[in-house]
Amino acid sequence: MQTILSIENLSKAYATGFRALKNVSLEIHRGEIFALLGPNGAGKTTLISIICGIVNASEGRVRVDGHDIVTDFRKARSLIGLVPQELTTDAFETVWATVSFSRGLFGKPANPAYIERVLRDLSLWEKRDSKIVTLSGGMKRRVLIAKALSHEPQVLFLDEPTAGVDVELRRDMWKLVRGLKANGVTIILTTHYIDEAEEMADRIGVINAGEIMLVERKDALMRKLGRKQLTLQLEAPLSAIPPALAHWHLELGAGGTALTYTYDAENERNDIITLLKSLSDAGIGFTDLQTSQSSLEDIFVSLVGKDAAAEAKATQNDNGPVTSS
């Protein structure tokens, strides 16, 4: 696939000696939705800030559609839209004025029809003449998205875009994201809502302590790192697992009436057939069976550790959907 964003050996070190990024290399494909996951302090926002020209890198190179963000910054920056975490807007401007002004900052000619379409897509059209200071937090978030889209970027960064917003905005935004992708826009998403990444992303990247730990297609990641469980409801309870089945590492539960087998998703068919034959040979019958697969959140926990994942989960809960829109 064609690369639209190329990151080579990118590092960021501060005067204190803290290294926020450590030799990050990453390629983002044109037209994909890429989810960058990581606990608080992992380096997600630092990486985005460097690409968008907000923070200077200590080392490395970034190119957007072939344009270097340092030596050809005007062209590179014109291709990027950013929806930041913070609700920073022009409080006393109207919605229409601030979105139109953002378009003009990139040298784009006035296009009222396009601005209207963006505002309608984000349910902002009825608020177009309202001053931003009068809007709810959810509506202000919509304005940030509209501003990021105002100059028709080819790469859109969404940095925790649904933190602290209502369900309606989340639904509207993901509908808009799918439409942008259909039109060839590349989306880079950071989120604490891992279920969103699991639903929306084509590829997943995991960053921790400033280093990229993994980059993989979502479906391949689920196959490679996902775990499945097979639970068998037994015809008769067992007091213990027979020694002949010890190598299967089965778990006995529900008062001896259920056996659970955990296995790699890639080895599903052969493992289950062999296990069921072994159970039959041991004289163990069952009345029902169920399978379940680990989620992307389970994989995230296994990669970054329980403490970091718990912190991310706590942030998700703190910033959960609110009622304002």
Automatic annotation (TrEMBL):
Stretches assigned to the ABC transporter domain: 5-234
PROSITE patterns: ABC_TRANSPORTER_1, ABC_TRANSPORTER_2
Domain of life of the source: Bacteria
Residue ranges of coiled coil: none
Molecular functions per Gene Ontology: ATP binding; ATP hydrolysis activity
Gene3D superfamilies attached to this UniProt entry: P-loop containing nucleotide triphosphate hydrolases
Keywords: ATP-binding, Cell inner membrane, Cell membrane, Membrane, Nucleotide-binding, Transport
PANTHER family per the UniProt record, alphabetical: ABC TRANSPORTER ATP-BINDING PROTEIN
Descriptive protein name: ATP-binding cassette domain-containing protein
